[in-house]
Amino acid sequence: MADGALNIKLSDYSAAKLAEKAKAMGVEPADLAAMLLDDRLVDYEDFTWVNGDPREPEPPFDPDEPTWAWEDVKIELLQRLERKLAEQK
């Protein structure tokens, strides 16, 4: 299983629901199964969350909040990321 491949046996009901939902989402059933398992099995403590823990609620949307173009903030964001990752070492 070093390549991440895994064969699992699903009930007829689960296989049908997986296929139905995958079709509605426009993805392959195996890809949806992987996404669902990743979502359920993730241990948030195993990751460094640069912009805060994703389990915490987002602040309310403020349409008057200023926005910036990606090109204008990319360098600063990458610098912050580098510093945050260096702190983890």
Major beta sheet, specifics?
none
- Residues in helix, %: 40-55%
Q: What series of H and E elements makes up the topology? A: HHH
What is the average per-residue confidence, as pLDDT, rounded to a whole number? 89
Shape annotation: elongated
Tally of DSSP β-strands: 0
State the end-to-end CA separation: 29 Å
Structural class: mainly alpha
Short description:
This protein is mostly helical.
Describe the fold and architecture.
This protein is mainly α and 89 residues long. It has one domain. The protein contains 3 helices and no strands. The chain has helices spanning 12-25, 29-41, 70-88. Helix 1 (12-25) crosses helix 2 (29-41).
Write a concise keyword list for the protein shown above.
52% helix, mainly alpha, 3 helices, 89 residues, elongated
